[in-house]
Amino acid sequence: METVFLLGKIVLGAYFIFAGIPHFTKAKGLIEYSKYKKVPMPEVGVYVSGIILVLGGLGILFQMNLVWSYGLLAALLVAFAVMVHNFWTVTDEKQKMTDMIMFQKNIAIAAALLMLLAK
């Protein structure tokens, strides 16, 4: 089971690293999307969230600063869910479904991070 747990942490860390990289390589598009979603301070938010995603992923991958990594990533995912994937404000049914799925995914991953934090 130790091997399976380690493999899971590697995949989880890599997931966050790869999710954070576009916050720098495709920042312009993410900033525009954040503006569209009415996220406060979208320019700052895109870069700060990218830093949290990459550093949190590296923390998980290298088993360093796990309390900070799990905690900040969980908080970021909840913030993303509420501010970006607020499906309850969307009128287009296709977009509403996409946002609902992304909202649920973010909340579920945040919950898993909190479980790891409690371990």
Question: How would you explain this protein's 3D organization?
Answer:
With 119 residues, the protein is an all-alpha fold. The protein contains 6 helices and no strands. Helix 3 (27-36) crosses helix 4 (42-61) and helix 4 (42-61) packs antiparallel against helix 5 (66-83).
Label the overall shape.
globular
Rg to the nearest angstrom?
A: 15 Å
Structural class: mainly alpha
The structural domain count equals 1
Strand content: under 5%
Distance between the termini: 15 Å
Number of strands: 0
By oligomeric state, this entry counts as single chain
Order of helices and strands: HHHHHH
Largest sheet: none
Q: What value does the average pLDDT take?
A: 97
Number of helices: 6
Q: Which residues sit in consecutive blocks of at least 5 with pLDDT less than 50?
A: none
- Summarize the amount of helix as a percent range: over 70%
Topology of this structure?
Elements: H1 2-20, H2 22-25, H3 27-36, H4 42-61, H5 66-83, H6 93-118
Helix pairs in contact: 1-4, 3-4, 4-5, 5-6
Task: Using brief descriptors, characterize the structure shown.
119 residues; mainly alpha; 6 helices; 82% helix; 0% strand; globular
Give the gist of this structure.
It contains 6 helices and no strands.
